[in-house]
Design a protein that fits this description.
The protein has about 1250 residues and is mostly helical.
């Protein structure tokens, strides 16, 4: 009723000329009984005969026009002159032909027949070319209409515009009809206009006919078309209108008819429901303003020239014809500029102010891009708060592309130095939002916002206190945001002139590098001491900060060669991190983990740059590396980074430098040998995994990559390291038997572990020594046992790698089998030992995890599936059932064990390989199934039954396993695996409930069973239902049979598991299942145990409900056709806040209200194992508190500003990095149009949206 009354009231109001009444359009769209009025009329022709003008009149008119243009200095194209000459000759020929002798015609016929073949060939070639481009045969600019030229002949657009202007000057009425028809055809519809109809008919009536045609479906989207021949349509269209406006600037532009009609139709059509209409006319209207801006700039230059000439003439004489002429020119030019600006204002008010908040983001983006270019190109009119506010408002648009367009427009605006004084109030109002956008949810928007803030900083429009929260983005996950913030931080904080520099000119560059590095160390102090955080900061700044590539300054500061800089211990550690990370970046290594798995392809220039960096770095390190190692050898926090540098040097330069400077007493080979010797000393001096790993890799790198004498030296030192380690390990084993102190044994086993991870240790007695440890000592610590088993496993791997795959020796294979058997025996023993300890209440998680991983890797290495049909087939091994069950019990014990909130409680100080033990355990088990290394019957259902139980990382591993199983398993086998998995999950639930003496149908475990069934049944969604129908039916029947084994005890299995799969079946199968279930209950008194039989009744009711929904589609259709709720209209007594205080010129009619503060729910992911997760959470909390405090200050300021009523106010929802975006109040009771709106809708398409 309210809608009917609204239409009735709107119908009573008179229509405004040139602005389409949206209420009438809605009435047209909602009424289906009225047929559109189709007035058939012939298309208005463009030729002189169709216009009813004689050839003599056209000829005399054009001759007069040529004379006028030549006298006035007009621009006349050569092709137009040739066209008139051709027209004159044709006219004379036609006149002479009336009195010609018939024999002359015969002569002409004979001469024409000679070239007939050539002409036909040319015409056929042209016809084939036009057909390939889908161009009409009459494609010349003189015969083809404007829309065909714009569609297919982009090169002729300029000429077509000039030709149309000539036709308009000759006969305005037909030419104007031609142009308006072209506008309609660009919108995708065709409407024939008769001569004189534009003056007689109202604009709204004509546009209403267009909308009726669109309602009938006669609509073509030329702007959004994907056809190849229309790719340049938009470019050609804009070029045509631009050329037309520029050609008309000397006359027709100011005749108060051409532009008035064009603007009226463009504005009216832009208010219609069809999106294609709005899009097309918005593009045209914006281009008209852009072209008018160019005309106004040209006129402005002419006015300035005339003013200068007038001033110069007045100095000579006060009066005279020259002064009078210049005054007249100045007055006329000023009047034209005024008219052009009035045209721009009309389009801005009628089109832009409505379409900048259109529901289509592409239209909004076009508006913002256009106004940004207008402000930059014509600041005398547009550089005002009245126009700037639209750029500020759209910073809150809910579409990322629109927000980015607004930011880019502001970037171009702030780039011009002369614009800055006029932007003070605007910047003060919207600077907070600009800062917030640097942390936008869209990466591209955030990067653009950072670029905008850089410009604000250059002009000192924001202070340092406003940028505090931005510095935390140096450790953002996105590399684009990190690098953008890195540029800002470098320019603003690091790249400063050294204030206290009194050094000589030669030391100025070095001093600047040291000063920048000092400022970098101050920034690193603000972050955590963790190395990961520092690497993120270094990665963000490395591209811009050349001081991090100044190897001499870095090494001199670390060696204390310069007395200017005094470094603390923390600064020295961070500087070592900077040096090591810079070395890695210089050679192309990644220091921050990324999601990109493939290796980046480098260009030739990039490869040459990396090679140059590597050469420069190595040249400095040849002299400094050994000194740095010697200085920081005893410092565990620093020596690791210094050792790692050796792996990224260009070792060939050591040999080259040695040859070039052989005369020097201290050769570079000595430095190389010294560095390796010090690396060896560091290996035996420290016991943490990071340092040991770095030392071993550095020694192995030099031994493999160096040349000649340097390689001999490196291999010798590596061999000495291995031999010395074995001797000390054997000594530690002997000492362990004499005393209970196992520290030295643990450290040497850890060193052996890191050494075997990189290079083989060829010692026949090593395996016996390790095996003797397990045989002779029964009270070893778990850490020692773990390291012994791991070293034994690595030794087995190297032994297998040493075999000749083509011709393996029997003795070597027999020895390998013996070693594997011994290792398998002790792995089985310690697996049972860990399980027994768990039963006694003592969890040995780290040892249990190690045993699981080693068993999985050992079975994978010696898999029968992998070794079949090879010379190593005899080494194939498949674990027996008892060992497989023991393995899974150990895995399950680790998965189900709690860590009291700390998953690494049993991990030592070096948890590099055990950061997430549960994820590692489930991965070790899943790979055995995924690659068919063990039978799936037992282990497959067990793994799947733990789906949705242990957090995101474990869930993702199981989900990937299910994907592989679906590809490789038959449908029936897959459903059997699903059923077994649900049975085992339900059995765990039964055990938990029995132990707690609770109801079988309640508890968290039953919810886990339901979630498991929901996830598994979801794999049969869509087309997979029909493909797996028989298997799903068998699964459901098997589940029902399992549920009734001990009814009603196991009936909860129906509700927990079976019901999810039953809903995936078609109606006939559901009906059969329902009958079967009801048959099994006949003769049973279910009233004796109502609670026990409740799951059965729930299952039956669910199936009956599914059947009833399908059998009653009419009722379901009524409920299913529910319309989305619309947001209510805002109360009129809510006042909007003024944007700029004290500026009366700003129109408040369309100004939105202040952004509403919405709640931000930053839910912490309990399974997030990113290195920076906790740091980011704390920093995000600090950013939110800072933003809220700034928001409170802004609100206090805005409350002091006068408020006035504004019915068009909208709530701007702030787009931050939070889940979800608040919807904007549409300001209308009708439903809002979505982004996927069809070509037209009822009333929704004209609803204007204030972007959120």
């Amino acid at each position: 009723m309210a809608g009917m009354e609204a239409m009735a009231s709107s119908a009573k109001k008179p229509l405004k000329r040139g602005v389409l009444n949206s209420a009438l359009l809605r009435e047209v769209f909602e009424s289906s009984d009225e047929e559109p009025d189709h007035e058939e009329s012939e298309e208005v022709g463009r030729s002189s005969k169709k216009r009813g003008i004689s050839e003599e009149e056209i000829y005399s008119h054009r001759r007069a026009k040529v004379g006028r243009h030549s006298r006035d200095g007009g621009r006349l194209e050569r092709d137009q002159v040739e066209h008139m000459a051709h027209f004159e000759s044709e006219n004379e020929r036609n006149q002479n032909s009336e009195h010609a002798d018939p024999s002359d015609f015969d002569k002409e016929k004979d001469s024409a027949s000679k070239n007939q073949g050539t002409d036909k060939g040319r015409e056929s070639a042209k016809r084939r070319k036009r057909q390939s481009l889908n161009v009409p045969e009459n494609s010349g600019t003189g015969s083809a209409n404007l829309i065909d030229i714009v569609k297919h002949q982009g090169k002729s657009v300029q000429r077509a515009a000039k030709s149309w202007v000539e036709r308009y000057e000759s006969n305005p009425e037909p030419a104007l009809i031609e142009l308006i028809t072209f506008l309609f055809e660009g919108c995708g519809v065709k409407l024939n206009l008769q001569t004189g109809s534009l003056d007689e008919a109202d604009v709204d009536d004509i546009v209403l006919k267009l909308v009726l045609q669109a309602k009938e479906g006669n609509l073509e989207d030329l702007l959004g078309s994907k056809q190849r021949e229309l790719r340049s349509f938009k470019e050609n269209l804009l070029s045509f209108w631009d050329a037309l406006v520029r050609e008309c600037q000397d006359g027709p532009l100011f005749d108060q008819k051409l532009m008035d009609k064009c603007m009226d139709f463009v504005i009216a059509i832009s208010c219609t429901p069809p999106r294609i209409f709005r899009h097309m006319t918005t593009v045209v209207g914006l281009q008209l303003v852009t072209s008018l801006v160019a005309v106004a700039k040209t006129l402005g230059e002419s006015r300035e020239t005339a003013q200068r000439q007038l001033n110069a003439e007045k100095k000579k004489r006060k009066e005279g014809p020259r002064v009078e002429s210049l005054n007249k020119v100045l007055s006329v030019t000023h009047e034209k500029i005024t008219k052009v600006e009035e045209m721009m204002r009309k389009i801005f008010t009628g089109l832009f102010m409505h379409r900048y908040r259109d529901v289509d983001p592409e239209i909004r983006m076009a508006c913002i891009q256009a106004i940004g270019s207008w402000i930059v190109s014509y600041p005398s009119l547009f550089l005002r708060d009245f126009y700037l506010k639209y750029l500020g408002w759209t910073l809150n648009d809910k579409n990322a592309a629109v927000r980015r367009s607004s930011i880019e427009a502001l970037q171009a605006l702030y780039e011009v130095e002369d614009n800055v004084p006029s932007l003070g109030l605007f910047t003060e109002r919207f600077c907070n939002r600009m800062i917030e956008l640097a942390d936008d949810i869209d990466v591209h928007v955030a990067v653009s916002a950072v670029g905008l803030l850089k410009r604000l900083l250059r002009h000192q429009l924001i202070g340092d206190e406003d940028l505090g929260p931005l510095y935390d983005l140096l450790i953002d996950e996105s590399p684009f945001i990190r690098h953008a913030i890195g540029e800002l931080v470098y320019e603003h904080l690091i790249a400063q002139k050294h204030a206290g520099s009194q050094a000589a000119a030669g030391d100025h560059e070095n001093e600047d590098s040291e000063a920048q590095l000092k400022r970098l160390l101050l920034i690193l102090k603000e972050f955590s001491n963790g190395p990961v955080i520092c690497e993120y900061v270094i990665d963000a700044l490395w591209d811009e900060m050349k001081a991090m590539k100044d190897w001499k300054s870095l090494t001199s500061m670390l060696l204390d060669d310069g007395p200017r800089m005094e470094l603390t211990d923390k600064d020295s550690t961070n500087l070592c991190r900077v040096l090591c990370a810079s070395v890695k970046k210089a050679v192309g290594e990644k220091i921050v983990p990324t999601h990109e798995s493939r290796k980046a392809t480098l260009t030739k220039v990039q490869k040459e740059a990396l090679e140059s960096h590597k050469k420069e770095m190595t040249t400095v390190m040849i002299k400094s590396h050994s000194k740095l190692l010697r200085k920081y050898l005893a410092d565990k926090a620093k020596v690791t980074y210094v050792v790692e540098i050796l792996m990224y040097t260009k070792l060939e330069l050591y040999s080259l430098k040695q040859q070039e400077q052989a005369s020097l007493e201290a050769s570079f080979a000595v430095n190389f040998s010294t560095s390796l010797q010090l690396t060896k000393d560091a290996f035996f001096k420290h016991g943490d995994d990071n340092t040991l790993r770095a030392c071993v890799k550095a020694l192995a790198f030099c031994a493999n990559e160096s040349h000649a004498d340097l390689q001999d030296t490196a291999q010798r030192i590596l061999k000495e390291t291995s031999d010395e380690l074995l001797l000390k390990l054997r000594s530690a084993i002997l000492q362990a038997g004499e005393s209970d102190d196992e520290y030295s044994l643990t450290v040497y086993l850890r060193r052996l572990h890191q050494l075997q991870l990189t290079v083989p240790v060829t010692n026949e007695n090593l395996y016996k020594d390790l095996l003797g440890l397990l045989q002779d000592f029964h009270n070893l610590d778990d850490e020692v046992i773990r390291l012994v088993l791991t070293n034994m496993f690595l030794h087995v791997i190297w032994s297998m790698k040493a075999l000749d795959l083509d011709n393996p020796e029997e003795a070597a294979m027999s020895e390998l089998l013996s070693k594997r058997a011994e290792l398998m025996k002790y792995l089985h023993f310690y697996a049972n030992s860990v399980l027994d300890s768990f039963k006694e209440g003592h969890a040995r998680n780290l040892l249990g995890s190690t045993v699981c991983i080693l068993l999985s890797d050992l079975w994978s290495l010696f898999s029968e599936e992998k070794l079949n049909s090879t010379k190593l087939e005899s080494l194939g091994f498949c674990p027996p059932e008892d060992l497989l069950q023991t393995f899974w019990k150990l895995c399950e014990q680790r998965l189900l064990s709690t860590d009291n909130g700390n998953e690494e409680e049993d991990v030592t100080d070096e948890p590099a390989g055990y950061l997430n033990q549960k994820d590692v355990i489930i991965s070790a088990a899943a790979k055995l199934i995924a690659h068919d290394m063990v039978p799936k019957d037992f282990l497959g259902p067990e793994i799947v039954s733990h789906y949705v139980l242990h957090g995101k990382s474990v869930d993702e591993t199981v989900r990937q396993l299910i994907v592989i199983l679906r590809k490789n398993m038959k449908s029936e086998d897959l459903c059997n695996l699903y059923l077994e998995a649900m049975k085992r999950a339900y059995n765990r639930h039964m055990q938990e409930v029995s132990a707690a003496d609770e109801d079988f149908s309640k508890g968290e475990s039953i919810l886990a069973c339901k979630e498991l069934a929901s996830r598994l049944s979801a794999t049969f969604a869509g087309f997979a239902r029909n493909m797996h129908r028989a298997s799903i039916l068998k699964l459901v029947k098997g589940g029902i049979a399992y549920a009734f084994i001990d009814a009603p005890k196991q009936l909860p299995f129906l509700e927990a598991a079976v019901i999810q799969f039953a809903h995936r079946l078609p109606v006939p199968d559901v009906r059969d299942i329902l009958e079967k279930v009801q048959t099994q209950v006949r003769g049973i008194d279910t009233d004796q145990d109502p609670s026990g039989w409740r799951p059965y009744f729930t299952f039956v009711d669910s199936l009956q409900e599914k059947l009833s929904r399908v059998e009653a589609p009419g009722d379901r259709g009524v409920t299913g056709s529910r319309q989305p709720q619309s947001r209510g209209r805002k109360r009129k007594d809510i006042k909007g806040k003024k944007l700029f205080e004290g500026h009366d010129e700003i129109d408040h009619e369309d100004e939105p209200s202040e952004s509403e503060e919405h709640e931000e729910h930053d839910e912490e992911d309990e399974d997030d194992d990113t290195p920076l997760f906790q740091v980011r959470q704390s920093m995000k909390a600090a950013v939110n508190s800072h933003a809220k405090s700034r928001k409170a200050d802004d609100m206090d300021t805005l409350r002091s500003i006068d408020e006035e009523d504004n019915e068009g106010n909208r709530a701007l929802a702030e787009t931050r990095r939070s889940p979800g975006v608040q919807e904007a109040d549409s300001g209308s009771s009708e439903a809002r149009m979505g982004f996927d709106t069809p070509l037209y809708g009822s009333a929704t398409a004209t609803e204007e949206q204030l972007p959120t």
